Amino acid sequence: MHPLPRAIVTRPAKEAQAWVEDLRVLGVDATALPLITIGPVADPAALVDAWRSLAHYDAVMFVSGNAVAHFFAQRPAYVANPFGEPGSALRAWVTGPASQSALQSCGVLPTAIDGPAMDGAQFDSEALWRTVRPRVVPAYRVLIVRGNAAGATSEASADPASPGVGRDWFAQQVQAAGGVVDFVVAYERRAPVWDAAQVAWIAQAACDGSVWIFSSAEAVGYLGASMPQQAWTQARAVATHPRIAQAAREIGFGRVLQSRPLLAEVVASIESGL
Question: What is the CATH number of domain 7-36+192-271?
Answer without folding.
Answer: 3.40.50.10090
